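Section 3.1: Structural characterization of target chains.
Under the original work plan, the team committed to producing a structural model for every single-chain target entering the pipeline before any wet-lab resources were allocated. The record below documents one such target. The sequence was received from the expression subgroup and is listed exactly as submitted; it comprises 794 residues.
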Amino acid sequence: MSPSVPLQEMIRAIRSARTQCEERGVIQRECAAIRAQFRQADNGGRSHNLAKLLYVHMLGYPAHFGQMECVRMIASPRYSEKRVGYLGAMMLLDEKQDASLLITNSIKNDLSHSNQYVQSLALCTLACMGSAEMCRDLAPEIDRLLRASNSYIKKKAALCAVHIVRKVHDLGELFAPAARSLLAEKNHGVLHGAVVLITELCERNPETLERFRKTVPDLVQIMKGLVISGYSPEHDVAGISDPFLQVRILRLLRILGRNNEAASDAMNDLLAQVATNTDSTKTVGNAVLYETVLTVLDIKSESGLRVLAVNILGRFLLNNDRNIRYIAMTSLQRIVGTDHNAVQRHRGTIVDCLKDQDASVKRRALELSLALVSATNIRSMMKELLLFLSSCPLELRAQAASGIFNAAERYAPSQRWHIDTILHVLTTAGGDVRDETVPNLIQLITNTSELHCYTVHKLYRALLSDISQQSLVQVACWCIGEYGDLLLRGECQETEPVQVTEDDVLDALETVLQSHMSAPATRGFALTATMKLSTRITDNVDRIRSIVSIYGSCIDVELQQRAVEYNALFKKYDHMRAAVLERMPVIEKNSPGHTNGESTREAVKEVQPAKVKQAETLLPQQPASQVCDLLDLLGGSEEPLQPNPAVGSTLPVLPVSTSSTAGGDLLDLLGGLEPTPLTPAPTVTVYEKGGVTLTLSSEKQSDSGLTVTLTACNSTDSDISSFTLQAAVPKSVQLHMKAPSGDSLPARGAAKVTQMVALSNPNKVNLKMRIRISYTSQGSAFQDTVQVDSFPEH
C-alpha cells in the first residue's frame, strides 16, 4: 500500500484485513509512512495524514506521536488545517499532557479571529480539554465573547463558560452578569447555553443562587412562550416546541424554587399550565411532564399542584413503556412519606405492577407497595403481598418477607391475624426470612396466651405437611414442646381440633431429628421439645429417654451436649426435671422502664421514641463506686464525654453541656461526679441550636417520682420532620417515656412537640439525664446531644 493513499483507501484496506495480524500490519505500515511525512519540513498533506492518524486512534492503536503535529496545525493560518488540528487536539490531548499548554496562545489568538468558525473551533477545544490553568488564562476572553453580537459565538461561549466554572469554581462570579443578560436573547441555542450556565452557577454558589432568583419571572415568560407558541418547524419535536430547552428551564426553576416560597409562588401557575397542556402520548411530552413533576415535588408548591403531579405519575404507571413505569414508581417512592394520601389513590395500579415481567419494575413496585401499607388497608394489601410472595423471584423473596413482617408488626388488626400472617410467610418462604424471625414469632406467641391452643394446633398441621422450611419447623417444635399438653387435649375453640396421640407427636419430632433437611439448630429445637414433653405426657417417658440417649454420641457437639445434659436430668436430677422443664414465662421486649435479666443486676434504661420497635442492647453495670454512671446507650464510642463541673445550689441557671459529635456518645457521662443538689426552676431552655429550641420543666409527683416535660420548637423557615428524642439516666433510676405529641416541627414555631418522661428515683441518687435530639431538615439528617445536670421543680 502506497504511503500517499487517501483516507478512504486506508479504511478500505483495514476493513478488508482477514485477521487481526493482517490489520496490525496495515496500520503499522501506514503509521510509519505518516511519521516519515511528519518529519518533512514542507508537507502539503499534513491535514490528510493527521486525519488518517485520528482514524487509527479511534481503532485503539497508539497515535501519541501526532500530538506535536496537532499543535503545529492549530497555529496554521489555513482553516482546513486548523479544523483537523483542533479535532486532533480534542482527541489526542488532555489537561494532563504537557503539549496541551502549547496551544493556549493559539486558542487565545483564534478567540479574537474575524472568522466565526475559527472562533468556534477554539471555543469547542477549550470546552473539551481546557485545564484549570488554561481556563484562568482565557476566562476574560470567554466573558468578552458572551457579550458578542453573534448568536452562534454566544452559544459556544456559554457552553465553554460552563466547562470553566466546573474546572475553576472561583470564576463563576465573572460570568454571572453576562449570563443574566443572555436570557433576553431570542435565539434558542443561546437561551439553552445561558440556562445551562446559570444552572451550573446556582448549584455551586448559594449567593449566586439568591441573586438569580430574581430571574424567575423571565424564565417563566420564556417557558410560557414555548408552551403556547404555535408550530415552529425549526424547533418542533413530535409536536412539542423545543423540548430540550423546556427541560433545561424546568430544571433551573427547580433549583431556584427549592426552599423559597416567593420563587415557588411565581412559577406555580406556569407549572400547572405545562402539566395540563403537554401531550402525554409521545415520549417527548412525557420527558417534559416528568421534569415538571420533579419540579413541583421539589419546590414549595401548592397542595393541589402536588396532587396533579402525583396523578401524572399515576398516568405514567399505565404507560406501556416499562422505563416510564419504572421512573414513575421511583418518583412516587420518594414522596410517599410526604404525600401519602395522594399516592394511595394509585394503589391498585401500583399493585398491578407486581405482576410485571421486568424484575426492576417488580422490585420498585414491591418497595412502593410496602410503603403504602397502613392501618386502614392492611388486610387488602397483605392479601396482595402474600399472593406476590408465593410467585415472586428468588432474589425478591427475602425483601418481600421482611417487608411483610414489618408491616404486620406495625398495623396488625389482631394478634391472631398477626400470627396467621407470619405463619403464612414461613410456610411460603421460610428459607428466606431473617434470623430474628424465629425468636420474634416465639415472643409473639408467648405473649398471646389465649391463642396458645390455636397456634400449637396450626403449627402441628404445618409440621406434618412440610418440614423443609427450617424457620417454620423451629417455631413448631418450640410450641409443641411448650404447649404439647394443649395439643394432646384436643380442645380448641378457634379451630377444628385434631385428635393427636402422644406417639403421633413424638413421631413428628423424631422425623425432624432424623431428616437430612434439618439443620443442626432445628434438631436442637426438636430435641429440646422432645425433652420438654417428658413432663407433659405420662405414657411415653421411656421412649423420650431413649430418644435423648441416642444423641448423647451425636457428631454435632451442640446436640451432643444437650443430649448429655438431658440424660443427666433423667438419671441424677429426676426430682428437679419438672421444675427445670416447666413452661417458659411471658417474654417481654426491652422497653422504657423495663428490662429483662437477673433481678439483682440493675440495667441502664434507654428511652425510645414511639417509632423504635426494640431497645438497644444494654451494657453491664459498672462498679458500685460509680453511683451516677451512665453507659453508652446511644453511641458506639468507647471514649467518655465529660459533663460540666458540679454547680452549687446558689446558681440560678441550669447547668447544660452539649455535644455535636456524630455518634452522640453517651459513654460514662456521669461516672465519678459528686452529687449536685437540684436547682429549682419552673421552665429552663436546655438546648438551642440551628433554630431548634428544647425546654424542660419538671413536677414532683411523690417522694421518689418526677414527671419531666420536654417541649421542642422550630424557629427556622423550613419544616423539620422525623423529630425524635431519646434519653438515658443512671442505672438506679427507672425511666418511662410516653408517646410524643408528634414527629414534625412546622417552620416559624407554628406548632410544638411535647414529650412526657416519668422518672422514679427510689434510691434518691442525684438525677442526671442525657438527651439525644435527632431530626431531618431540608433533606439532611441532624443529630445532637445535651446533658442535663439538674431539674427545675414546681
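The two ends are 103 Å apart (CA to CA).
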